[in-house]
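Session log. Operator J.P. requested a structure for one protein chain; no other inputs attached. Running the standard single-chain path with token output.
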Amino acid sequence: MINGKRVTVVMPAYNAEKTLKKTYDEVPHDIVDDIILTDDASTDRTAEVSRELNIKTFVHTTNKGYGGNQKTCYQEALRIGSDIVIMLHPDYQYTPKLITAMASMIAYGVFDTVIASRILGNQALEGGMPLYKYISNRFLTTAENYLIQQKLSEYHTGYRAFSAEVLENIPMLENSDDFVFDNEMLLQTMYFGYRVGEVSCPAKYFDEASSISFRRSVTYGIGVMQTAVKYFMSKRGCKRHSIFNPDGKKLDPRTPA
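Structure written below.
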């Protein structure tokens, strides 16, 4: 706990057998109350390794996609009464050592959501981020900042912390089950007036670290721009999109995923 707030780490996992233990070992267990892993129908021993580490493990019998996996993670985190939820990839691309800092910023009421930015500090390329991904990250971030009138350093990190209030009140179940889920969720957080902070985070790129193909990166980029346009139109009353509808489908902490 931090400042009396229950802290839970959720790990949306797919074929993370080789990196899960290394990630788990660096989690600050002195302040993390629970760890939840949802295995999205992996073809390796991810679920077995997770259980060996005594992680609360849920297994999808069919692959629900990156966004669908996170929906299960957040549902289970709310169901056990978490106050702060940190989403950490179990592929060891992001260091778990930032969990304490990210959770503290929420626990003490500074922010409602905190993202770990690979761009702050100019370490992305040094960490091995492919040049085309760096360029597309900068382009998409610039375009989004312009459309939604924010000043984030990036929108595309997979390392995030949320207060339970955010998770309960944004219409998350209206979001995609694919990779654009992350972007939709972050824009929902800002659309509904929650405060978003950033911390600088080194990221590592190596063979076992998860990464999407160039083709899927293009699909993701198109989805990101579509989401930003939906935000722009909804804010100006031109058209209310379901992901920005306050009456849209939300998680219910009373219901198991």
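Operator note: The chain has a mean pLDDT of 92.
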